[in-house]
Amino acid sequence: MRPRADTFDLAALRLGAGEGRTIELSQALEPFELGGQRYAVTPDPASLRLDVSRTTHGGWALRLRFEATLEGPCMRCLEPAAPRFAIDAREFDQPGGGEELESPYVVEQEIDLAAWSRDALALALPTQLLCRVDCAGLCPVCGENLNQAGPDHGHEAEPDPRWAKLRELEL
Asked: Is 41 part of a structural domain of the chain?
């Protein structure tokens, strides 16, 4: 079984410049709340693969990979949805290299895996979580699920309300 970790001590690896190591860990990811709906992250815990390389002058090149599924309602039809995401995130931390070369997840040789894995998953999410790519959603008139409705589903067009007073005229 993989060890569970919210943080990981990079200094404990005792890597020299140019050396690297791959570490297999597990991480429990917190559920997401999107559009007022709760989306659970599975598997719980997720299996993480952390690739660590030591750079010159005490820096780190980091790569985080894992797969996760978000389970919750489809944002179009409200049926259960469970899209799967493959995450491949990279970070670089070079002390003294300026703000653009400092990772927000590495603090004093310790990496915050919980924050990095959650942020990496959040950045991989599409604008809408759907039950399937071609989800048709709900009918805006009656609320029927258009994925299950037949091709003949439709409604008579409502008359334009701007012409209502003209219909009251008696000629």
From this structure: yes
Number of domains in the chain: 1
Q: Where are the beta strands (DSSP E) in the chain?
A: 7-9, 20-27, 32-34, 37-42, 46-54, 60-73, 80-81, 84-93, 106-107, 110-112
- DSSP track, 99-141: GGG--TTEETTEEEHHHHHHHHHHHH--SS--SSTT---B-TT
Structural domain including 109 reads 7-135
- How many helices (DSSP H) and strands (DSSP E) are in the chain? 2, 10
pLDDT tens track, the chain, 171 positions: 566 778 888 988 899 888 999 999 998 899 999 988 999 999 888 899 999 999 988 899 999 999 999 999 999 999 999 999 999 999 999 888 778 888 999 988 899 999 999 999 999 999 999 999 999 999 988 889 998 987 888 888 878 888 888 888 887
The tokens for 39 are 């989306």
* pTM for this model (two decimals): 0.81
- 34 falls within a domain: yes
Structure tokens at 24: 């297999």
What's the one-letter identity of residue 68? Answer: A
Query: Is the link from the previous residue into 43 a cis peptide, with omega within 30 of 0?
Result: yes
